[in-house]
Request: fold
Amino acid sequence: MAKRNDPVSRARGRKPAPVKKPFPMGFAVGCVALVAALGGIVAYAVANQGIGDKSSLKYAQSQVSGIQNTSGLARQHVAGTVSYPNKADTPPNGGNHNVNPESCQVYTQPIANENAVHSLEHGAVWVTYNPTTASAADIATLKTLVNGNPYRMLSPYPGLKSPISLQAWGERVLVKKASDPRVKRFLDLFTSGPQAPELGSPCTGTTATVPQASASPSPTK
Reply:
């Protein structure tokens, strides 16, 4: 029998020394990269939520190049005039407005911003043109596109910085010619479109033609 202090016996009874495994740096880096990639995908999906849904506002906005979007617009009924941004050369595309909507039809005289904006809230598209720079042929084309549609209206807008502009609630596009494909695209997407805060409310009310930003006072609601 081997003695307890025999070197061979001691070696056989000794537990093997633990082996230190190297830190899996490649695995950790891969995990970090995967998390970052997934985070990017989620962020993109959130930012573009609804862009593939043809009934969504995101989709509509993505279909019109050069479109101008305005969010967080006020929606109170007010009496008298409203100080809309840049109203001397740009029709408003939303904001506080008169209690009476402007009836959707073709107008040959300017209409009040305050009434027109109320119609935008209901889903109307307001087509405007500069009577000095828009051609007679373009105006005739616009009349054809608007006339007879219960949620479209057309009016001249003296001082307009572009020959033609189209407004829906929170949306606007400026074009030079009625033949620009964005005109029809904008009309198709935003007439009674997903941008309207009160979609389905009628586009009927006053048919008055008055100077710009000169709406008759009405009681607030």
Remarks:
- Strands lie at 68-69, 125-129, 152-156, 164-168, 171-175.
- The mean pLDDT is 86.
- The chain is about 30% helix and 10% strand.
